[in-house]
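Bug #77: duplicate submission created two jobs. Keeping one. Sequence:
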Amino acid sequence: MEPHERAMLEESLSLARENNEMLRSLRSNMRWTRLWRAIYWLVILGSLVGAYYYVQPYLDPMFQAYNKALEVSAELGKIGDQKDQFINSFLNQPVTTKTTK
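Kept job's structure:
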């Protein structure tokens, strides 16, 4: 093997080792990034679940009051429909006039 070829081969080997080292470093950084991202989202979701668990006793009466308001609103709508039917039946009656003598 000629000295020129040997120098090129050693340079190629050196570059391959350097490339391998950079790729291993990138792979390691990707793994750490994935791990921290998973921990980040677990903390966020855990905080949301914990906050809901803590606030739930205060939210339940509010939801019950909201459902009760919806029921009352539906009942008022029914009363409004009955009122309209009553007015319409009153207006559709024939008019009778009394004659005075």
